[in-house]
Amino acid sequence: xxxxxxxxxxxxxxxxxxxxxxxxxxxxxxxxxxxxxxxxxxxxxxxxxxxxxxxxxxxxxxxxxxxxxxxxxxxxxxxxxxxxxxxxxxxxxxxxxxxxxxxxxxxxxxxxxxxxxxxxxxxxxxxxxxxxxxxxxxxxxxxxxxxxxxxxxxxxxxxxxxxxxxxxxxxxxxxxxxxxxxxxxxxxxxxxxxxxxxxxxxxxxxxxxxxxxxxxxxxxxxxxxxxxxxxxxxxxxxxxxxxxxxxxxxxxxxxxxxxxxxxxxxxxxxxxxxxxxxxxxxxxxxxxxxxxxxxxxxxxxxxxxxxxxxxxxxxxxxxxxxxxxxxxxxxxxxxxxxxxxxxxxxxxxxxxxxxxxxxxxxxxxxxxxxxxxxxxxxxxxxxxxxxxxxxxxxxxxxxxxxxxxxxxxxxxxxxxxxxxxxxxxxxxxxxxxxxxxxxxxxxxxxxxxxxxxxxxxxxxxxxxxxxxxxxxxxxxxxx
Amino acid sequence: xxxxxxxxxxxxxxxxxxxxxxxxxxxxxxxxxxxxxxxxxxxxxxxxxxxxxxxxxxxxxxxxxxxxxxxxxxxxxxxxxxxxxxxxxxxxxxxxxxxxxxxxxxxxxxxxxxxxxxxxxxxxxxxxxxxxxxxxxxxxxxxxxxxxxxxxxxxxxxxxxxxxxxxxxxxxxxxxxxxxxxxxxxxxxxxxxxxxxxxxxxxxxxxxxxxxxxxxxxxxxxxxxxxxxxxxxxxxxxxxxxxxxxxxxxxxxxxxxxxxxxxxxxxxxxxxxxxxxxxxxxxxxxxxxxxxxxxxxxxxxxxxxxxxxxxxxxxxxxxxxxxxxxxxxxxxxxxxxxxxxxxxxxxxxxxxxxxxxxxxxxxxxxxxxxxxxxxxxxxxxxxxxxxxxxxxxxxxxxxxxxxxxxxxxxxxxxxxxxxxxxxxxxxxxxxxxxxxxxxxxxxxxxxxxxxxxxxxxxxxxxxxxxxxxxxxxxxxxxxxxxxxxxxxxxxxxxxxxxxxxxxxxxxxxxxxxxxxxxxxxxxxxxxxxxxxxxxxxxxxxxxxxxxxxxxxxxxxxxxxxxxxxxxxxxxxxxxxxxxxxxxxxxxxxxxxxxxxxxxxxxxxxxxxxxxxxxxxxxxxxxxxxxxxxxxxxxxxxxxxxxxxxxxxxxxxxxxxxxxxxxxxx
Lengths: 479, 665
Fold this sequence. Notes:
The complex is a heterodimer of chains A (479) and B (665). Chain A is mainly alpha-helical and 479 residues long. Chain A is built from 23 helices and no strands. Chain A is globular and about 65 Å long. Chain B has 2 domains: 34-380 and 526-555, no CATH class; 384-518, Immunoglobulin-like (Sandwich), CATH 2.60.40. In chain B, the strands form 5 sheets. An 11-stranded mixed sheet of chain B has the order 5-6-4-3-7-8-2-1-10-13-12. A 5-stranded antiparallel sheet of chain B has the order 15-16-22-18-19. In chain B, strands 20-21-17-24-25 form a 5-stranded antiparallel sheet. At the A-B interface, helix 2, helix 16, helix 17, helix 18 and helix 21 of A face strand 18, helix 15, strand 20, helix 18 and helix 21 of B.
């Protein structure tokens, strides 16, 4: 009895300390937001890409208000739904008539886009909460699996650190997340959609998962590949040691009598089709719904075809050559026009190429698979921003327990931080593009190492760690 | 007998008819032209800053082709073919070098409104074709003109170079296309084909004055070709084609030495004559010209000043023509016109006319003006002086500001405005920005008298067509309604600088990119002048042009925007490095996917079986791979060895970062 009370108290204590950190992060954000002009973060190319910039959204809203298509210029490339949600918040109320002069005076003192940034803070907090819930769910599933493998020592160990809390706090206190939120890029909302879809899949809520996936795909196209981990997640349930382990443990248990060998094959992890079918149905429902909404909002000007052309088309044909975090923009500024289409295909296929092998390799760990997909697409997408990095660094928190031995991963965020910030002096003054790119080039070399360490050091580690952990588990379970 | 009488009658009738016809041409000369006509005129005007404005005006008229067929004897065939082929209603092409200084050279008269042009090439044309065909015709036109004038007008062909203003550039224009090339250098190779369109070229008549060195030495010169055609109109009124060629030059008389007389007589105007400006004299008219006149215009401000001086002198008893006291003309004018000012009845500008029919080679015409007393005056100004500048720093973004400042003159006439308080000054602004200047139209801010105002209060009408990347430029048309007594107004709009593909940069990319001038016009102010002797004025195209109602128009400065430039020399480096990075990524990921845990174990087992040396080797390899040889259960907890390595790694990275910051920062 006492232990239970202790546990409860412990839980409450944990919860309260978590909440304190969440509130602290919100307050920190609010303080940053209160600074004039958002510390000029919204104009940083790392924060606001052509897809996520709030200024472009405001321009699109202005065009829409003046009865033009929001896609009339090549300014806005986001979703029309986002436009109707966020657009009214970008208009300053100072534009109202002279009758409200007092009101104008009052609002003029406030920083611009206050409501918008509050919305982004809310989105951040919500995604952190969802991350926490998903992480707890994952951990619960994990301990349950361990218990079923009769590895109680390990399961106790994993209870010490709550990976959900860590993921949520890493997400909330990650400087990238803070910068993306304060810098008014729309990526917090995209991240929220992705996380909610993962949460929905973990909790086996097909409608929510489908909604999150549809919204995320609608907002930024790349999360479309997440449909594979989502299906796995719904079908197999949260991450688990590979089915082989169960087989082995069962078989070793009944190793003495050869009859049980047949029974151990029957106890394989089963793929339950029902939630998946529900999920697919819900996807079609939600996508039709979203398309209808979009169709209504762009009905007068151009219709859906123009919308797809200037959102997905803009993403796929890297038209905007303004600098961003990776080197693609400079590559396409310098590449010969003749080869442009070829390289466009090469770079996009690079993302798609790894989808299937990774799915085969990691099918028993759908959450980790989703993390890997998100990481790959955030590095290879055409307009990456810090918001995308924030998402996958946050997701990394889920696997903190499994990857505990591999501190090399810590290098990854460090390198990322090093990568994104030294470019500031290059860009602020009248240094030319070449200089900026030289920075990026050095960073690109670095990026090469980063990628190397990321994949051969970090990712390999991760995959390896997973594999090795599976191996240790197997050993433990056998002995 | 009866036959001869009949014949006589017939002849009489014919004569009568002819007489009637010629009378008709006389009366409705400007509307109903029967023959091809050519006239040449030169306007000279002293400017307040010791410079002289000379404005050549040549006008050729061709009757409708249905009366004369396709043959011309005066009118340039190239132009008439252009008009008929491309179905041009109206067109204007100007080549300009230098900037018209509105504060000093005036901003209210017909010359500054019609002939002050933005630097470089400006072309606009109205076509008489269906909307869908206009762009194709425009492309043809640019190519034809670039061939005709030896200029790169064909750069206006691409859809990102021209725009279709709706109402702010010219009122109620349908199929109008407008394009400008601010960078275009203008020189004598553009002038020669222009002169070839004149019947006498530059061999005789007024155009013989155009001595190339003296024309291009000037502070401003603008050659312009304006074409109006009613050729394709289906209405009865058909005046054929009117080709108006003007050359506006602002020159410094060569006789005036700056260093010599600056100290003593600061107010003394420079004395000049045609020969001192151009280095040549007028040796008779072009024989083919119907009329050949030289005008000398004294501006309103100058005349006012002279009258004031005259009043002072009146005490000494001399109460004659102002000119005799303050300045002297070397040739007596044939006619003197005075401008009729309905509003004030005060002193107005004066125009002296000289007909050069009577001059010849032996007796050349050389008009000179000698000042006797120092005079200072101001030319008439537009209601607001417009200027444009860039704000912000860095190569990423900036803002364009158009500032409208009230001119001193309109301040003086503010008394009339004070009478009607509710009066408003209308200002039309037309601005084209290239697509790589990505304007955020929602950031438009309006300041009136240095106070920020709501956009809707000042901007009465706005039409925007945002730029499409590599497709079309951004166009902004606005009507501002400002209170009459406004001191200053400013518009700011923010933009992001775009990034171009390496092929899209012009040869000297580091110089920066030009944003064409904005057009600021005041539709309620009339720039026209009306002169007293109306009947004879009809004959002179220049003066009838003066009397045409036209709105006051001014161009702002061309802006130079520096854009970031990529490395033009080594694109291969970029390509190879980027591809290498991608190959590395791809290889390493593939490697991860390929490896299997079981394989490693098998390898380890295999190494155990072999000798000790190989075991050591495998140990070494394992260590190099930074992996403990045997996975221990305790490896889940971080061992001290691992943490040491982590600290080492972090230190290395930090060192590299610090060194790099130090080296580059």
